Amino acid sequence: MTRFTSYRIAFQTILTKEILRFCRIWIQTLLPPAITTALYFIIFGHLIGERIGEMDGVRYIDFIVPGLILMAVITNSYSNVVSSFFSSKYQRHVEELLISPVPNWVILSGYVGGGLARGVLVGIAVTAVSLLFSDLDIRSFGWTLAVFVLTSILFALAGFINAVYAKSFDDISIVPTFVLTPLTYLGGVFYSISMLPGFWQKISLANPVLYMVNAFRYGLLGVTDIPIGIALAIILLFIAGLTAFSLYLLNHGVGVKS
Amino acid sequence: MEQAPGSAEKGDLWLRCSYHLRFAFPPGAVFMNALLLQNLRKTYRNGFEALKGIDLEVAPGDFFALLGPNGAGKSTAIGIVSSLVTKTSGRVEVFGHDLDRNPEAVKGCIGLVPQEFNFNQWEPVAEIVVNQAGFYGIPRKQAWIKAERSLRQLELWDRRREQAVSLSGGMKRRLMIARALVHEPRLLILDEPTAGVDIEIRRSMWSFLTEINLRGTTIILTTHYLEEAESLCRNIAIINQGRIAEHSSMKRLLNQLHNQAFVLSIEQDLTRIDELGDYRWQRLDEHTLEVEVSRGQSINGLFQALAQRGLEVTSMRNKQNRLEQLFIGMLNASRRRDAQ
Lengths: 258, 340
What we know:
The complex is a heterodimer. By secondary structure, chain A is an all-alpha fold. Chain A has one domain. Chain A has helices at residues 3-24, 26-29, 31-52, 60-90, 94-98, 104-130, 141-165, 169-185, 198-204, 208-221, 228-251; strands at residues 54-55, 58-59. In chain A, a hairpin with a 2-residue loop joins strand 1 and strand 2. Helices cover 38% and strands 25% of the residues of chain B. By secondary structure, chain B is an alpha/beta fold. In chain B, helix 8 (199-214) links the parallel strand 7 and strand 8 (218-222). Chain B has two domains: 5-254, P-loop containing nucleotide triphosphate hydrolases (Rossmann fold, 3-Layer(aba) Sandwich); 258-339, Alpha-L RNA-binding motif (Alpha-Beta Plaits). Chain B contains twelve helices and 14 strands. The A-B interface holds A 1, 5-7, 9-10, 12-14, 16-17, 20, 24, 87-88, 91-93, 95-103, 253, 257-258 and B 44, 79, 82-86, 103-105, 107-108, 110, 112, 114, 116-122, 127, 131-132, 134-140, 179.
């Protein structure tokens, strides 16, 4: 058996384990985003949206669809990895991986793959819900899919880093509550930044989620507040940086070895 | 599985010898230790020096005891060998593979049964074992075959679909052994595998471990049950305050005992005897006698002395486990040396 085959089997094992984990508790993991998004569509899209009219030349309910899908993907990709990896540290079964001949990049890929899998499933569920309220006419399927997958990977990596540093269950909820949610809400999910005064527009440009939401919206609706090339470059840059940092943490045993 | 540890040893001498020849001296190979530690040091971030430069060699096929009091550095040493703890300095080699140069080869040789339960308690029993096989690159189909064999050996196959949380303490310990064995490691490290386990399960674990050792697996055992180490292990190292206090064969170590105390139950009334030759003795009650047998004296001589006085022995036991007696003596000596 080649080394590559061993790594592939190890990766598949971690990925399967991760997918089975969130599927076993689907009521906690897969159902809530669909319900929450349905409520957003009813309240913001249908009831309030009808009074708002159009935004960036599209119906308000259509305008918020990309942001809502991506918001669910971001939250679920992040929380899947952070909760799973922290639990494995807390219950010490991360040791199963640390003692076995699995390279750190395979461990990272397995966990990120798990986050991506949950992101994809939640994304599909939320998209299905959105179809009940809006007529999605995808402008660029390839672009939409690329942004969708890359964003999910990015936040799965961020969740992994959070889990590495977390020492208690409080530590894994602080970042999603006080960092991730505000960034997502202020990342142009519900509004176009062109509506903001100049100063706040500039502040908004420092929010990485803005680039992802706009890149995704471009793929779905063909409208964006920012150049999509820059958006893609920023996403890729973040992925590269977070991957390098995650591997550095694993190679140095931060949070997992004494 | 129910078999006294010693009986397998006597019956399978040929198996043991052939094993040693096969692994210790493979054709064209130089002698290779199952485990080699050289000047191994570990200082934790808080400044605590857990290992102060230990050297250790474990031969292939050995059943090796690593003993020491709590906090002596046993678990740190095991943690370093199994890649759970980062060493400060020193060298670790497992079957000739250097931990720094080829960590994956080292990890592939080792199976670890840690002190505390470290599996996902919410996963089904079989899944825990199958996943572990997957981490070692064993394809899923083959992993199921190996997991079945491993779980059957440990009498857990019937519980394979249950969540691990529902198992009893002894079953959980057996699950950790089954998991550690699924990839057929050449070196099995057991960190207090029988802690908190009742005597029946402990004995069945002893015979199982003896069996797999006879089949060729090198075993390193840490335990606080010294009778366990005495009856299972052939070689021993005692670690104290981060240093190796003793490293020898069990036989040589036990020969260091200057005297042994025995407690004998006597059929007749003991109030009528007032001497027992050269043996130092004391009466514990009307039918129980404690006798000290020094190195120059024999137990046969003791029985003769008792028979001459018309006393019949109905049962006999060591007052204290022999290894325990030595262990405590060594630790005290080591502490005295450190204090000076």
